Amino acid sequence: MSYKNILVTGGCGFIGSHFIHHLLKKYKDINLVNVDLLTYCGNPENVRDIADDSRYNFYKADIGDYNAMSSVLKKHQIDCIVNFAAESDNNKAVSSPVDFARTNALGTAVLLEAARQAGVKRFHHISTCEVFGQLPLKSKSKFSEKSPYNPRTPYNAAKASGDLIAKAYHHTFGLPVTISYCANNYGTHQFPEKVIPVFAIRAIQNDPLPVFKSSGNKREWIHVSDHCSAIDLVLEKGRAGETYNVGTGLEKTVTNIADDVLAILKKPKTLKKIVPDRPGHDSRYLLDSSKMKKLGWKPKIKWHEGLEETLNWYKNNPKWWQPLLSRSNSWK
Ligand SMILES: NC(=O)c1ccc[n+]([C@@H]2O[C@H](COP(=O)([O-])OP(=O)(O)OC[C@H]3O[C@@H](n4cnc5c(N)ncnc54)[C@H](O)[C@@H]3O)[C@@H](O)[C@H]2O)c1
């Protein structure tokens, strides 16, 4: 690893906690700082096993708090930041849109400014395929890194805003920024508000699976460990000022996912229940990830194998998810 002191923000969330485990396992000689505000979906259990690792430090803080961020950057001589911290749920974005602008746009701006003042050598910003808007359902089109931004929900509009500020910090101040746009992630430890954990837990409990009316809408899926290996490669080989799409090409409709979950868990198809669409429900996203492949990245986990591993984990870890259900909009 080219960097020694790495700050991961949002490291108690789903992808951030996987990324921290990925780095600490692979690189013995790094120091890792995790800053997380522990919002309703930030879960210290996700990093409990590394709490005593001498290479690891945790701070409960807001990326939008300039003094707190500056002090962490200085104290730990951070040379690389990977910014996962965000409000990330499209359903919550409909009920509390301002929270999304505060963290995903303003919080990112504050962290960028703290990074500029501290002179960090790399600021990697985690973005999403959703900033590009939606693709027609019946088409073969894909988003490239050069596709225009066209966000349609408060979540992806706030993510797009954060991206644009990050790009401006590169162009205006020369901050070495890279951005990755990733497809929908799945895997263990995902907060039970997103579709796969919701389907998994409901199926395990023999409860109906809520399938949006536009059940043919498609998403591109990637196992979280493949996302982590892509970010790692961008830190090593990516160039400042560049952006990278991270996807697998695997598209699934909501109905496909419900059917796959029910089949793996050996539950009847009759558990599917059609519910009204969420406002602003995008039809389709798909990324052209050839730039990442040229950099040397390849996803490794096959859908069926990754989904089975994920579902088994939810089946075997009710102690992890049971206390979270009361905090999730999907269960109220
Ligand atoms: N989940 C996906 O499918 C997906 C796909 C593409 C991109 N992303 C992006 O990846 C990142 C991580 O997503 P996730 O699914 O792990 O989300 P998550 O909701 O599981 O985790 C987000 C974490 O950020 C923390 N956080 C929120 N606001 C904060 C703030 N102001 N300061 C510090 N910490 C704060 C939360 O406590 C939580 O631990 C996000 O930026 C998201 O936009 C996610």
From TrEMBL:
Keywords: Lyase, NAD. The keyword Lyase applies. One of its GO terms (biological process) is nucleotide-sugar metabolic process. Transmembrane segments: none annotated. Residues 7-310 form the NAD(P)-binding domain. Belongs to the NAD(P)-dependent epimerase/dehydratase family. dTDP-glucose dehydratase subfamily. This is dTDP-glucose 4,6-dehydratase.
